[in-house]
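The records we work with from here on pair a chain with its fold. Taken together, the C-alpha cells spell out the fold as the letters spell out the chain. To see the layout at work, look at the sequence and C-alpha cells printed below.
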Amino acid sequence: MTEYRAYRRADQKRSPGERTWWAARWIPLAGDGCGNGLFADQEPGPACGRTGEHAKDGGGFFSEEEASASLGVFLASTARGLQDGLWGAYEPYVDEDGFLEWREPDADIVVAWGMREMNRRYGFG
C-alpha cells in the first residue's frame, strides 16, 4: 500500500499530456525492489484485468504478449514457467532468503528449489 501511495503522489505531479507514470486503477502485483514491477489494470472497459509493466524511469506500459491479456492468463503462464523451468527468457529460482526470483538462464546463480525450507518458513505443510 505504501508503494501505491508513493506512485500516486508521483503521478499527480506530471504535466497535462505527459505519459501516465501511474494510474489510480493500477494495482501493484510484484516488484523487483528497485522500482520496477507488474500491475493489474482495473480501469473499466474491455481491457480491464490486463497486466502491465511499470518501469521506474518510464512509467507504466502494456505489452502485446498473450500473457498480459488478463491476470488469469498471466498467472497460468507463470505456473507453466514454474513447471517447465522457463518463462519467456527467464528461469525460476529461490534466492538465499527463500523467495521466488526469475533470472536469465546464463546467470551465475545456483538454482535451488528448497521447497521443504520454503514450506517450513511460510507455514505451508
Summary: The beta strands are 26-31, 37-41, 51-55, 59-61, 91-94, 100-103. The longest strand covers residues 26-31. Residues 119 and 125 are 6 Å apart (CA to CA).
